[in-house]
Specification:
single chain; alpha/beta; 8-stranded mixed β-sheet; 6-stranded parallel β-sheet; 11 helices; 14 strands; globular
Length: 356
């Protein structure tokens, strides 16, 4: 079949470092047909590098163009609901970068539009498409046998890696967008919430959303958020999820050290399954899967990897397959709603425990 004509809304860090290169690599599946960004310098940069990319004056013009088949919503989180609503009305396939929205209310408004929508809406949780994650599903102990789950993100932000490896252009952040994002966040944390709680929620919807989604995809839905705490001005988060007969502990630590250390570990009494991630900002860095079993002479570990399959590439391959085969994504709006509901519950536990 002919390549699917893609229109990108938002040409910032994730578009430049990830989506545009992957789309270029998968030129048999996609063609970059249109772009829009509030920054003219970003539009000029991308149209100069991709001859097929037409610049649009507004996001709505791109969405409604008959020359666009699929819309990639890569813009700031506060704009997601508006652009997705327009793309649903135009009946376009949609790739929506995480978080799908900042509030459950926004997702509920969009879900109300879905009965009349017959295309694919795919939320981009790339860790759920990493080769090690997919392989882990066949190695997990039975759910009834799980005794403990540990997840952590001990990382630095993407710029620490990109500034050493790629030439990414960062536009000036618009005051209006920052204000709209803050208003949406305060719907969840409260109008008078302290700055550290606001920062904690921003971290949940950004960094932590990947592992909250991955956790649910791997071991199912927790019964509740048992406890949550924030430290270091809201940059660090600790959460305990209640799964009934076991607990899942999640820790997120964001610093300026310039290291990336992310992992999911599932244990039973005689097996440990560990998924190890590297930074996604350097494409094709490997993931690994370690499976350790109790043996007659001590622990026996087998390692799958390093697995060099790029999670973002696998994600776009999966999105393309859903479009062409008419199948339903695992990471859709309804799935993302459960992530945001958990994040709101985490905020409530943080309010109870305080922070510093």
């Amino acid at each position: 079949m002919a390549p699917i004509r893609v229109g990108l809304i938002g040409l910032g860090e994730v578009a430049q470092s990830i989506h545009l290169p992957v789309l270029g690599d998968q030129r048999d599946r996609w063609v970059i047909a249109g772009v829009y960004d509030v920054s003219p310098s970003l539009v000029s940069l991308v149209t100069s590098e991709f001859a097929t990319a037409k610049a649009f004056d507004t996001a709505e013009a791109l969405i409604n163009s008959p020359d666009i088949d699929a819309v990639f919503v890569l813009s700031s989180d506060d704009t997601h609901s508006r652009f997705v609503r327009a793309a649903i009305a135009a009946n376009k396939d949609i790739l929506l970068e995480k978080p799908a929205c900042l509030t459950v209310r926004e997702i509920d408004d969009l879900l109300a539009l879905m009965p009349g929508y017959d295309k694919t809406l795919f939320v981009g949780y790339m860790r759920r498409y990493a080769p090690a994650y997919l392989a882990a599903r066949d190695e997990l102990p039975a759910f009834a046998d799980i005794t403990h789950v540990r997840i952590f993100d001990l990382i630095s932000e993407g710029r620490h890696f990109l500034k050493k490896s790629q030439n990414v252009l960062y536009p000036q952040v618009l005051a209006r967008g920052a204000s709209e994002r803050d208003a949406l966040i305060r719907e969840v944390v409260g109008a008078d919430a302290p700055a550290d709680l606001v920062r904690a929620y921003r971290g949940l919807t950004a960094l932590s959303s990947h592992h909250i989604s991955a956790m649910r995809g791997l071991i199912g839905e927790p019964t509740r958020v048992l406890a949550a705490h924030r430290t270091n001005g809201g940059a660090n988060t600790s959460v305990t999820f209640d799964y009934g007969h076991f607990a899942c502990l999640y820790d997120a630590v964001v610093d300026d050290l310039g290291l990336f250390d992310a992992m999911i570990e599932v244990r039973s009494n005689n097996r440990r399954v560990r998924i190890i991630y590297d930074t996604p900002y350097i494409r094709s860095l490997p993931t690994r899967l370690e499976v350790t079993d109790a043996g007659p002479f001590g622990p026996v570990t087998k390692t799958l990897g390093p697995l060099y399959g790029d999670a973002f590439s696998k994600e776009l391959e999966t999105f393309h397959r859903h479009i062409t085969e008419g199948t339903k994504p695992l990471t859709d709006l309804a799935d993302s709603r459960r992530d945001l509901a958990l994040m709101a519950e985490i905020i409530e536990r943080m309010k109870e425990s305080g922070g510093r």
